[in-house]
User: Fold this.
Amino acid sequence: MTSRGLFIVRFSADLSTKSGRTRGRFAQVLQSNVLAALSQAGVRARIVRSHGRLFVFANDEARARALLGRVFGIANFSPVAARCGADLDDMARTVEEHFARTVEGKRYAVRVRRTGHHPFSSVDAERRLGAVLNPHSTVDLDDPEVTVHVEVLGNDAYFFAERLEGAGGLPLGSEGRALALLSGGFDSAVAAWRMMRRGVAVDFLFCNLAGGAYERQVIQVAKVLTDMWAFGGSPRIFVADFNEVVSDMKAHVDPSLWQVVLKRLMYRTASGLAGRLKAQAIVTGEALGQVSSQTLSNLSAIEPAADRLVLRPLVGLDKGEIMAQARHIGTALLSERIPEHCALANRSPAVRSTARAAAAEEAKTDEQALKRAIADTRQIDLATVTGAELRTDYLFVDEVPESALVIDCQPKAHYDRWHLPGAVNRSPQSVIRDMKRFDKRRPYVLYCAFGTQSAHLAEIMQQYGYQAYALRGGIGAIRKRHDHDAEPA
Assistant:
């Protein structure tokens, strides 16, 4: 019989080597996560666990096929082309009906694996099924173009031609919870993914150093990790405003230790939040020797600021390996457009420090500023936040941020008639053409006659890593707000 929508799912080696009770517990988590993945995509499914495998029956084969490869804990899986009873005659009829055309004119092989007691061996079955297919093709056991796989499990035989790669690792949530520091760059996203692959349910902490546009970009990275990989979990991102913390630190700390002290302050923020979340560890994207704060000496100076286990899954990887994984998990295109805001300007950062020296410099900072940042941390549910919300909440502003360059996108004649004081006049076409020459360290605010073109331009600029915003409303509303603010009290 045909078995459209049926998949055989095989456990990763990490599960297969567990003791019976532990394997059963992990398999139950995996089963729940597979159902969550399919349900999230609107696929109705039921799952049967038998013979050390999951048998997934889904009403949408194409969607299920795309999703199963991203559920942690799966070594590989196969769409079942047909199934029948564990009887050689039935199996011979089934293989001819479903595979004679598939192998026609091609080199083929038949591979049979059995679990249970049967009146035939695996070799007997391979010879019998091969004899059925021989008139249509040529046997080539060494380099077949098509391999017909048969798994005989108890009283049933399952036929398939594909063994698709799974995500491997351990089922998400089977190894506790951690809080991952997320900057939006290649490293922190890959580090979080690697811990998720080891079964750790991850929430994210973003210490914002550069405003709403940066926040939006980082949330988009976290959203990709959530939507594509966090099946069975409910990740949240916590946003801590670090502007006051960084300003205070720069005013009091030796500039050569800014990077080290900043990391210590982030570790303290993560520790405070992790305690509330009952997270057992902190995850970072640090790779040994990649930047000045990630030398062995500086990592040793930073680590005492944490009050729990610090996991560094990238510590032994080089940048090429990290970027390759970022492309695999789907965050690379977003991450490559995010500027490195954590790299504070200093020409001579210390590459060697001690915990004592770093702690002494940290002691010069305002402890209350850090406490306020922790207390005011905002929580965003990544599973429910939508693209429309990201656009509305992070694209528009009502006031011009300090040090921002204001760009008036009206025609020149309208600009001459009235514009915000200090605004420069640029056509939408010139903004797009010259954008690559803009300074990414500076914020930009755009406005136009009706508020539509400026919003579109600001969104494009954000996508390319700029701190760009659109003033809310058209020129009439903007002028009215400006005139009101300019009136004497």
Q: What stands out?
A: The chain has three domains: 6-165, 177-385, 393-486. Residues 253 and 360 are 9 Å apart (CA to CA). The radius of gyration is 29 Å. The first strand starts at residue 6 and ends at 11.
